[in-house]
Structures are given as structure tokens and as C-alpha cells.
Amino acid sequence: MSRRGNAKAPRNQPRQSRSRVTVDAILEATIRVLEQEGADAATTSRVAEVAGVSVGTLYQYFANRDAILHALQDRELERASQLMSGLLGKSERVSEQAIARAVVEALLKSYRAAPALHRVLAVEGLRVTPHDRVLAFDARVVGTIRAFLSLPGMPVRRTNLDAAAFVIYQAVRAAMLAYLLEDPAGLDDTSLVEELTDLILRYLVDVAAPERVSA
Question: What is the pLDDT of residues 42-54, one digit of tens each?
């Protein structure tokens, strides 16, 4: 099947509620196959079977497997952007330690909700998603972080907030993706949250994260 043109984008935009239900069923079925059977099993025929639709119906909305992954990547990017905006855009003031930990925990929770999906997207995401879409997402998140760092009263010790927002975002994302892909020895979810929270605080405000006392 040709990959030229807009082959990776949905063929028919789901404007009616029934169409949206079908598209959502296909996307959720893809996630189930990835999580339960692995990436190699996520063929269009298997996804259609799990979604309860015909392969012909699937092809009405997605030209191929890459198009499904592109839609999933697009959805995950939007969810992550909303998550960051929600956490960093709250009007009530909380401690730097609390907000740093909340961001790391929320990001890890989103990855843990579908780890196999995020592993596939980490490897194939740049291939199936237009580069400008990824750049736009990165710019939005970095802009959200920069706006947060520039709030009055924030004890940020970095002078270049553009650089600080970019560095901390990329550092946390890279570490989290590597953790999902590599499953490194001596590191679990709790330890990762502690380490990344400490990284954020020491880099941005020169304050160490308080160590948790084991129960």
C-alpha cells in the first residue's frame, strides 16, 4: 500500500458520532493488541478483529498501520500538552517540590497507562508523525514551562528561561523514555520519580527534593 501523500493521516475525518465511535474503537483496539500481544501482532487485520469491525471499515479511516500509529501519537501529544498546561497553569500556589513531583508522577502515570504503546511511539513516532507536528508540540510544552518559570515570586536561579525550559523538558522526557525502553537495573517507578524530582529542583531552584522515609 502506498505511503505517499497523506497515507499516514486518517482517510475520513470522523465528523458524525458513529464514525467517532468507530475510530475510537480502532485506536483502543490497537492499544490492547500492543499491550497484550506485542507490536508485531498489531496488524490492520488483527486490530480490526479486536475492534469488532471489518478490515474494509478500518481502511475507510486508516490507510495502514502507520496511519493508526500517527493518530495515536497525535492523541498522546494532545493529552500530554493538556496535562502540562493543567498542572503548571493552576492559579493556587504550591511548593516547588510539590509541583515538580506532581509533573513527574503525572507523566509517568500517562506512560504506565499504556507502556507498550509508548515504547512503539518512542521508536516509530518520528517516522509516522510529521516533523512539524512534533516540533509544534515540543514548542507548546516548552512555552508552558517557560511561562510557569517566569511567574512572579518563582525562585528560579537560571537566568535564561528559554534555555532552562528546553533543557529541563528534554532531560525529563529523555530519561523517562529511556527508562521505559531499557528497564534499567536498580531503578523502579518510585526511584525514578525521586531522582527526576531532585534533578528538576537542583537545576531550577537549587533545592534538593526531601527524601521520603520508607514505611
Answer: 999 999 999 999 9
CATH code for residues 71-204: 1.10.357.10
* Distance, CA of 90 to CA of 82 (rounded, Å): 12
CATH classification of 17-61 is 1.10.10.60, yes or no?
yes
pLDDT digits (tens, 9 = 90+) for 32-86: 999 999 999 999 999 999 999 999 999 999 999 999 999 999 999 999 999 999 9
Q: How confident is the model at residue 213 (pLDDT cuts 50, 70, 90)?
A: very low
Convert the pLDDT of each residue in 24-34 to its tens digit: 999 999 999 99
Cell numbers 500538552 correspond to 81
Q: State the span(s) of the chain assigned CATH 1.10.10.60.
A: 17-61
> For the range 165-174, what are the long-range contacts, defined as Cβ-Cβ under 8 Å and sequence gap of 24 or more?
166/142, 167/203, 168/200, 168/203, 168/204, 169/138, 169/141, 169/142, 169/145, 171/199, 171/203, 172/103, 172/104, 172/107, 172/196, 172/199, 172/200, 173/107
How far the first Cα of the chain sits from its last, in Å, is 56
| pLDDT attached to residue 91 | 60
Tell me where in the chain the CATH 1.10.357.10 domain(s) lie. 71-204
- pTM over the 0.85 mark: no
